[in-house]
Specification:
mainly beta; about 140 residues; globular; Porin; about 0% helix; eight-stranded antiparallel barrel
């Protein structure tokens, strides 16, 4: 039986760029820089994600990211897939799943083959997120 485990990540950042991938589909790409902690390890996450509308106030999105420790002792990456709902005053709230991997033996090696359940919020170029391990 699958269940949510411990909170493994919490961070905040900002969207630093946008790009139109397909104007007819309203597919928009965003670049995000975020700082946070994976199990008390300070990290920087650089990610790119895109969204496409799928209904009234609903978007589907996919992301790819590179995670680096602040002290350079580890790297990891993830691919994420999720759904966002536009909330009038809060921006867009995302629920997603991240799939982590690393070839590093460093401090982020515990992330290899981990699945994370994500709750994130994007509002006025600001972003915050939390990830729980999905066991």
């Amino acid at each position: 039986m699958a269940m949510l485990g411990d909170l493994i990540y919490e961070g905040k950042g900002r969207i630093i760029g946008t790009r139109v991938l397909n104007a007819e589909e309203n597919k928009i790409e965003y670049t995000l820089i975020e700082e946070g902690k994976f199990k008390n390890i300070d990290v920087t996450i650089t990610s790119t994600f895109w969204t496409i509308p799928t209904g009234k106030d609903i978007v589907y999105g996919e992301a790819e990211a590179l995670i680096t420790t602040k002290n350079g002792e580890g790297t990891a990456s993830y691919k994420g897939y999720g759904i966002g709902r536009s909330m009038e005053k809060r921006g867009t709230i995302f629920r997603a799943t991240n799939f982590y991997k690393t070839s590093s033996n460093g401090k982020l090696s515990f992330l290899n083959n981990t699945v994370g359940a994500v709750e994130a919020e994007a509002h006025e170029n600001h972003h915050s997120g939390k990830v729980w391990e999905w066991k």
